[in-house]
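Contributing new records

If you add data, match the layout below exactly. Sequence lines come first and carry their own label; structure lines follow with theirs. Keep one chain per record. Anything else will be rejected by the validation script.
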Amino acid sequence: MVCRRIVFCITSFLFFVSSITGQKQPLQAKDSLAQITWVESQYEKMSLQEKIGQLFMVSTAARDVDTTSEKLEKLIAEYYLGGVIFLRGQPKAQIEITNTIQAASKTPLLIGTDAEWGLAMRLDSTFAYPFNMTLGAVQDTNLIESVGRHIAKQVKRVGAHINFAPVLDVNSNPDNPIIGSRSFGESPINVGLKGAALARGMQKEGILACGKHFPGHGDTDKDSHAELPHIMASKAKMDSIELIPFQKLSDQHIDAMMVAHLEVPSIETTPGLPSSLSKATVTNLLIKEIGFEGLIFTDALNMGALTAAASEGNISLKAFMAGSDVVLMPKDLPSAFDAFKSAYESGRLTETRLARSVKKILMAKFKAGLHEYQPSAIENVVEDLNTLQDKILAEDVYENALTLAKNNISLVPIRKLENKKIAYVALGDGAHSPFYNMLKNYAKVTQVSANSIAEYKEKLSQFNLVIVGYHKNSKTPWKSYKFSDEELYWLEQIAGLRTSNTIFACFANPYALKSVKNFKSIDAMLVSYQNDSIAQQKTAQAIFGAISVKGKLPVSIQDVFLEGTGIKTKTLGRLGFTLPERVGLSGTGLSYVDSLVQVGLDSLMFPGAQVLVAKRGNIVYQKNFGSPTYAGTAKVYVMHMYD
């Protein structure tokens, strides 16, 4: 009798998780029979309080290990938490806290993180990958999938199981204050394509991916962290733009989706009711119309957009009853927990509804490997999160993202150098030395600075080519990328000099260019998206033809350069610069060159030397040592010539 009951439960639940289209359910593991057995076993052992607790994921910081662990252990004991999301801190601390609280929890905890461009979004001492906007310019989706795999390895290394990424918002509003560079761009097709590749990479490495922010946070100029954004788009527009990436990712079985706090009257007719609390949005649209069967998270319920939506104790319950499975970051956990218990006791929350979400959560935990949980090692974690493979992949991405939006007279790449007198002007408040130093590897380039446009014009009159770099701090997507009025004026005046041609390189969010009034006098314009040192070095190499340019704009720049614009270039055969390992050599092996040359200097075999190693058209080692003569004090530098 018991055996028949177990078989009936497994069969019934398998039917529940099967797609109505006959396709594989997103949360289904490879060993689906073992998964269902584990899920049913865990569920049968749970009390009502334990089942309710599974629905909550609270937030914490990975800093004070003892205090944080103690606080979370208390919450686990009182409210039987289903998961924890780490918002900021250090990787070692996160592992220590995670190992402690996992040991304290009867049911394994689902650990989440926001790692849209890697753990560097939240944790210090970790590697940062390019933002989604930069990835949106890359035409090779295999590279995007590789980024997803590498980010997943980072996430897994610190003991987390779900990454709240990719962002699937179509950023059709250039003034969006919270999405911007976090979006792959303004084309729903491109966003869906790149989002699917990133999610696919994460899921192949065993990390649950979560698309956000449903039904689309791109077409707004408000930040839902502070207030409720109002999306005025018609349902037809939502179907043709905002919902396309979510539909694509649902069809490709992404594990989870996150519902945003947005007011969308074309979907939810109740004035002021956020999408996260809307049954019309979550159940009718996401589950029924789109057909999504994975895990559904609310966006953080402590955000300003929800302050007027419901009483504190009921927001979590309203979001759950709307169709979400996991309540993320409730502002008042005790009252929310009590609201669920009261709803169950009154019959408003049925066992069937509770079981649907709890079993989906348990399925996700099994798929993430929590049925065989092992604590994470702390040793060498910082080294493991900053690998040579990460640097190689980032170099590939920045090189492939670089976009040439304009190229009058085929100015880029620069061909004949013998008649070129080149000046470089740095605008913006970001670092620019990687760009300038790389430019100097190919030609004599003089940096020019001035305090007025008159002074600029006087100094630049002796040059026939001016390279202008706009450098803005891009450590996060929320850093200001806008030109000052003075910089805009200088750019226009410098580009308008009749004595020279102008190449302009933008190392910032491409939306910065929407304030440029006149592009006519700029002869060539490169968009590099971020002020990362790799992006700067690759841009300089492209200007001189050492590498080709193949990226395309993921967003339109005014109505001058439309989304998808991108002029391809070919190399001129000049040597590029890259990491030794990227061409099959060893950086460790090349480091021995330093000691060999030093032996020669110490034994007076020679007063100085230049050593250059190149392979496959790329310089992988270039250093200067000593002085040109035994008697001199001058140092050997890169432009010295030896016969």
